[in-house]
Amino acid sequence: MELKTYRYISPYELNENIFDALNNQWMLILAGSREKHNSMTASWGGFGILWNKPVAFIFIRPQRYTLEFVEQNEFFTLNFFDEKWRSTLELCGSKSGRDIDKTKAAGLSITDSINGIAFQESRMVIECRKLYADELKAENFYDKKLISDHYPRSDFHKLFIAEITSVYQEV
Length: 171
Fold this sequence. Notes:
By secondary structure, this protein is α+β, with helices and mostly antiparallel strands. It has helices at about 20-25, 65-70, 85-95, 100-105, 145-150; strands at about 5-10, 25-30, 35-40, 45-50, 55-60, 75-80, 110, 115-120, 125-135, 160-170.
C-alpha cells in the first residue's frame, strides 16, 4: 500500500467547496481506537464558527453503530475521499459494523491522527473534539413536512457540535 503524505492546515485555510464535499462526495465519520472502531457514510452536516471556534456539526441516527463510538470518544474524524472510493463509501453507508469489519471489507487502513484515528486513504481528514450533543425533537421542527419526509419512524438524529482541532490534506 502506498502511504500518503499529508500537510497540516488551519481550518481557516480550507479552500474546499464544502457543500459539494458533503452533499456529493460524502464523508466517513470515524471514531474509536485502532483496535475497535466504526465508521459511517454521511452527507448531512456542516461547518462554521460557534463559541469563537471553528466547528463541524454532524448528525447520527440512533440505530447507527457509529453512534456508540462517537458517544464514547472525545474525538472523531471526518474523512473525505477521491471519487475512486465511491464504492467504499456506499459499502460503509449500507452495511453495519455490528455485522462485518467495514474497514477490512472496504479495503481501508487505520492511521493515527493527533488525538484519534483516521483512514490512511483519505484525501482530507478533519479531526474534531466534541463540544455539545442533543437529540432532534419533533416539537422543535417549524416545518413539520421535514418529519414526514425524513423521520417516518421517528428515529430523529442526534446532533454533535465539535471543535475542529486539526485538518490534514493530501500533498
